[in-house]
Amino acid sequence: DQQVKQNSPSLSVQEGRISILNCDYTNSMFDYFLWYKKYPAEGPTFLISISSIKDKNEDGRFTVFLNKSAKHLSLHIVPSQPGDSAVYFCAATITGTASKLTFGTGTRLQVTL
Amino acid sequence: GAVVSQHPSWVICKSGTSVKIECRSLDFQATTMFWYRQFPKQSLMLMATSNEGSKATYEQGVEKDKFLINHASLTLSTLTVTSAHPEDSSFYICSASTPGRRNTGELFFGEGSRLTVL
User: Fold this and answer.
1) In Å, how far are A14, A56, A107 from A17, measured between CA atoms?
2) Which of A27, A49, A90, A101 to mutate to test the interface with B (most CBs of B within 10 A)?
3) Inter-chain contact A89–B44, Cβ cutoff 8 Å?
4) CA-to-CA separations, A4 to B5, B20, B48, B56, B115, in angstroms, rounded
5) A53, A78, A105, B17: which could join A18 in a potential S-S bond, CB 3.0 to 4.6 Å?
6) DSSP state of A82
7) For all residues of chain A together, what is the average pLDDT?
8) Is the Cβ pair A89, B107 closer than 8 Å?
9) For residue B42, which residues of chain A lie inside 8 Å, CB to CB?
10) Is the dihedral of CA A4, A5, A9, A11 positive or negative?
């Protein structure tokens, strides 16, 4: 049972344009969501997070939106840069469960020149 | 940011042998570390939670006798894949949270270890 889903395995965006990566979840107990970025042969690195008490969190070029009623979140990257090309994982957790994360399957973003 | 290091990054072994993977927190003490596994084109799956000085907590479906976890110090956790078989070939990643971020889910990941069992 995949509780966190990223339905788009890949996405290609031109440099300078907006990248939108989507994530859906099924467990209504999740109350904290994170995005991780992963380059080949490396471990994931934390990018941005959002608590369920908010619907938006922004950090520079990265913005995460949360729609609790739809159990959907999205990561916006604007403007997209070639260095953003990586696999992006959405993850969810329940606060207080000692950081046990449930990950999505990832979306490979390719930013083209 | 905090640094978590894994070793080895690549390992190839024969079927039936055991392989040990080390995970170290280099600049902080990690009372809890997490071991994940990733199969190709799949998500990171939590295998077990490693607690310093006590037994690891395994997720459902993960064989504790096959995947031995030892967390003997605040900076080192090891995962031993015993009697490895080709189906154990995967990318194994450890992670830890810093004391101040333990409840936020913001984990620091190691570089990962790719295991290939022939």
Assistant:
1) 6, 20, 17
2) A101
3) yes
4) 27, 30, 19, 25, 26
5) A78
6) G
7) 93
8) no
9) 105
10) negative
Question: How many Cα atoms within 13 Å fall on the side-chain side of residue B93?
Answer: 24
Beta-bridged to residue B91, according to DSSP, are B38, B114
Paired strand residues for A111: A13
Cα nearest neighbour of A101 on chain B: B105
What are the strands of the beta sheet with B76-81, ordered from one edge? B4-7, B19-25, B76-81, B67-73
Nearest 5 degrees, angle CA A64-CA A66-CA A70? 145
Digit-coded pLDDT (tens) for B43-56: 889 999 988 888 89
Residue appearing with tokens 């950090």: A59
pLDDT (mean) for B60-85: 93
The 3-state DSSP class for residue B71 equals strand
